[in-house]
Amino acid sequence: HKPRSYFKKGRAFMMLWTEPTASSGSERTIYYKIRRFVVIRQKSTHCLCLPINTYSGQGITKRGIYVQDHAAVVSAGGEGQLIEREQELTKSSLYIKTEDPSISIDSASLIKFGKVYTVEYNLKVKNIGRILPASISHLESYVVDTLKLSSTIESSRT
User: DUF6590 domain: which residues (predicted)?
Assistant: First the structure.
């Protein structure tokens, strides 16, 4: 478990994420997978995060995704190797500094700004790194723009 202070804006981490699948009758099936997230806002007992997806390695070539809601995530010092629909991305790439040498950023990685997740502070997470300070203002403005918010994202004590 990480302390609340770990979950600052721009922090990237991974965790085991569970979601229910379609149920048949009274039985419910749970789907588990490792998900990656970036913190956009701290709250008192949880944080609000955006998912980092590769869409099974398809990236922006995946059919049906709304490209305008995404930005590429690129390892600091590297260039994203986006394919085919790269020119359709309307948002600049966001750069991340990995803090664990065993973790690399897949070239198909995209942050999805259209869906916000709640992650409780008491869950076990594995550190990936941080969005570079030069990319934080882009992160903030993309969230505000995509979610049609009226002001920037700021840390709060609520």
Answer: 4-140
